Amino acid sequence: MEKVISCFMTRPEAVARLICFPWAGGGSIHYARWGNVLSSSVEVYAVKLPGREARAKEPCFQNMQQIVDEVISVLLPALKEKPFALFGHSFGAFTSFAVADALKKLHNLEPVHIFLSGASAPYSEIRIKTPRRSNLSDDDFLKWMTSIGGTPPELLSNPEILQLFLPALKADLHIVENYRCNKPEKPFLSCPVTCFDGKEDMPHDLQAWKDITSGDFTIRMLEGSHFYLKEAANEKHILDYVTNHLEACEMDYF
């Protein structure tokens, strides 16, 4: 479990677990520290992918199925214990979707809520037509990274750190660019789905996410660009929203 999951604050008494998936090239720490902030009703599991953090020496995954297989094999016992929700930003929204899809098909398990951020639905036309970035030269790739914001300037100007950072980022983008799935013929989930996004980010087809659930569907737009969720006020808004909904799910679940 410790190899794949960061959990800064174990909470045996929690009513629900929040499973968080990183953005492209991202680690687990940003989400893991949410466990120190959220109330005792929520336990946070932040997914650690190979090629970064303590798994830096492991080769990065090459396709979505590898992520789904590892996450489910490690988390399945915990997901059967108590209600769980999924949160993913950008690349993490795709992995959240893929994991939820597999859990439903293979184990008839579904989250009590899915929180998706900064991404079009994987089967939407906007997403399918998105230009490929993982094959860009390092220089052009860094120009693109700078344009979308959210990457610290000291990181972009430090060649040694960049050499550690770029392989995982490009590997994750390669996974996204080659991930294909069909629009669901009918919703495969019944849980609520909430989409967050930055108002100044590139347009995303958030509405298309509604096709995955027969439950409530909500879109919430916040100030900022692609990494809007790193801003303190937005992060507080998201965490308050998540907490309120997960605490409310306890009454519906039991």
Automatic annotation (TrEMBL):
It holds the Pfam family Thioesterase. GO terms for molecular function: fatty acyl-[ACP] hydrolase activity. Residues 17-241 form the Thioesterase domain. Its EC number is 3.1.2.14. The keyword Transcription regulation does not apply. It catalyses: (9Z)-octadecenoyl-[ACP] + H2O = (9Z)-octadecenoate + holo-[ACP] + H(+). InterPro entries: AB_hydrolase_fold, TEII, Thioesterase. GO terms for biological process: medium-chain fatty acid biosynthetic process. Keywords: Fatty acid biosynthesis, Fatty acid metabolism, Hydrolase, Lipid biosynthesis, Lipid metabolism. It comes from the Eukaryota. Belongs to the thioesterase family. This is S-acyl fatty acid synthase thioesterase, medium chain. It comes from Cynoglossus semilaevis (Tongue sole).
